[in-house]
Design goal:
The protein is α/β, with parallel strands linked by helices. It has two domains: 143 residues, Aspartate Aminotransferase, domain 1 (Alpha-Beta Complex); 252 residues, Type I PLP-dependent aspartate aminotransferase-like (Major domain) (Aspartate Aminotransferase, domain 2, 3-Layer(aba) Sandwich). 35% of the residues lie in helices and 15% in strands. The protein contains 13 helices and 16 strands. Strands 4-12-11-10-9-5-8 form a seven-stranded mixed beta sheet, with helices on both faces. Strand 2 and strand 3 form a beta hairpin. The longest helix is centred in the C-terminal third of the chain and has 22 residues. The chain is globular, with a radius of gyration of 22 Å. It binds pyridoxal-5'-phosphate (PLP). The site of pyridoxal-5'-phosphate has 15 residues, from helix 4. The site of pyridoxal-5'-phosphate (PLP) has 15 residues, from helix 4.
């Protein structure tokens, strides 16, 4: 059967008359004739308006850790609704979920709920400023902390002048230039550059805000001891360490990336996998710091800790804590990567995987990038073409090579078999379409010397 988006396309033409780009997030628009609209999902799969079925490796950029429409989670969300929605008063559920978080991540001595990762990042930064009395902060190139002005700056490598450092540019119009004056951005995995900034400006810097794995840049992982070096430098220069576990929390392990890499943040944020897709986030951290909420540092919000999401979070976290779900997800990721390696290896295609197997980036080079500049220098045309061929054959991966492949507890052997069979076919089609011209070796940035 040929792949058709006729119904999605028809819906787009209608939707675009009322919704900018026909969707509710710029990132969901893939082109006038390529934008996919979902009918429903179940487990590891989703179906679009045309009835195309996909194995879903996007999982809404990570949250759906147990699979779509998980019965326990949806039931708990409905039970949550029996409490009501919001009251501008507390409920018992928020204490129970905070206890659950603490039982898995002991660094969460106290917990404050937010609605989204963006809100949690903003609250964490405000808390750090309130505690230290300093305004500035440090972030890392290639990282993402949400759609707020202070985080919407990226390195402009396209327009870098020879011999000069690349400049930061806003994501788009409407980001005030003034917000640029509040932060420094340093390359990921470069503790020396971080120290340099902290040495010169530490008296103005409240926090180092870091994604422990660059979940928005192919899942680039920290070099051994990099996070511990960041921890040590933050302490030495009297700066708070905020670890953004919005993507990694309750995904790369029960105790998140902090447990995986043996570091403890002063403040950390959680969101996505916490409630299997229901909107909830949290700011967590050391008691002495967190008590400042309510002692001079403002935090709140009409919808924070609403009952439905709390119910979903309680069910999701209980399941993640008391079962082998996360270990199983990582094992699936490793098996999938091994299968892909067999297929690519047999065709002499250089490749590597970045990050953690539960959120791994696929990269067409012999070694994965270690920072954003490295990723940008490489040629990702093969990934782009392959992703389109996979999607058209029912494997829903992210078209943008910077997004990792996310795995849920619902991905089973049938999904894996289907994925690898389709992957093999899509690789061959891609080789036929664009050849090997875009496959680069590590040593010389020249096409790999393998005949097509
Ligand atoms: C590491 C990180 N922090 C923050 C955010 C923002 O979260 P949200 O989209 O829920 O606002 C994201 C979103 O992808 C993220 O990956």
């Amino acid at each position: 059967m040929t792949y058709s988006l006729a119904k999605s396309n028809a819906h787009f033409r209608k939707a675009v008359q009322r919704l900018p780009l026909g969707v509710s997030s710029n990132f969901r628009y893939w082109g006038d004739d390529k934008t996919v609209y979902v009918k429903h999902g179940q487990g590891a799969r989703l179906w679009d308006l045309d009835g195309n079925c996909y194995v879903d490796y996007r999982l809404a950029y990570g949250p759906v850790i147990l699979g779509h429409r998980h019965p326990n989670v949806d039931e708990a969300a409905r039970e949550g609704q029996s409490v009501g929605t919001v009251y501008a008063l507390g409920t018992e559920g928020e204490y129970r979920v905070a206890e659950l978080i603490h039982s898995m991540m002991p660094g969460a001595e106290l917990v404050r709920f937010s609605n989204s990762g963006t809100e949690a990042s903003m609250a964490a930064l405000r808390l750090a400023r309130g505690v230290t009395g300093k305004d500035h902060y440090v972030t890392f190139e290639g990282s993402y902390h949400g759609l707020f002005d202070g985080s919407m700056w990226r390195l402009d490598l396209e327009n870098q002048k020879p011999g000069e450092e690349p400049q930061l540019m806003p994501y788009g119009a409407g980001v005030p230039g003034l917000s640029r004056e509040l932060f420094w951005q340093v390359p990921y995995n470069d503790a020396n550059k971080l120290e340099d900034v902290l040495r010169r400006h530490g008296d103005k810097i409240a926090a180092v805000l870091i994604e422990p794995i660059l979940g928005n840049c192919c899942g680039i992982a920290p070099a051994p001891d990099f996070l511990r070096a960041v921890r040590e430098l933050a302490t030495r220069y009297n700066v708070l360490m905020i670890v953004d576990e919005v993507k990694t929390g309750f995904r790369v392990g029960k105790g998140g990336a902090q447990e995986l890499y043996g570091v403890e943040a002063d403040i950390f944020t959680l969101a996505k996998a916490m409630a299997n897709g229901y909107p909830i986030a949290a700011v967590c951290g050391k008691e002495a710091i967190m008590r400042r909420f309510g002692q001079g540092v403002a935090h709140g919000g009409t919808y924070t800790a609403q009952a439905m999401s709390l119910g979903a979070a309680e069910a999701t976290l209980t399941l993640l804590r008391d079962t082998t779900a996360l270990a199983d997800i990582a094992a699936y990721g490793r098996r999938m990567q091994a299968g892909m390696t067999a297929i690519l290896g047999a065709r002499g295609i250089p490749h590597s995987f970045a990050g953690h197997p539960s959120m791994g980036g696929l990269f067409f080079r012999q070694s994965p990038p270690t920072n954003y500049r490295d990723w940008k220098q490489s040629d990702y045309r093969f990934y782009d073409a392959l992703a389109a061929n996979l999607i058209a054959r029912g494997i829903m991966c992210e078209p943008d090579s910077r997004e990792p492949w996310f795995i849920s507890a619902s991905h089973d052997q049938a999904c894996l078999d289907e994925t690898l069979k389709t992957f093999e076919e899509a690789v061959d089609v891609t080789l036929g379409d664009i050849g090997r011209a875009s496959l680069w070796t590590d040593t010389a940035r020249t096409p790999a010397p393998v005949a097509a």
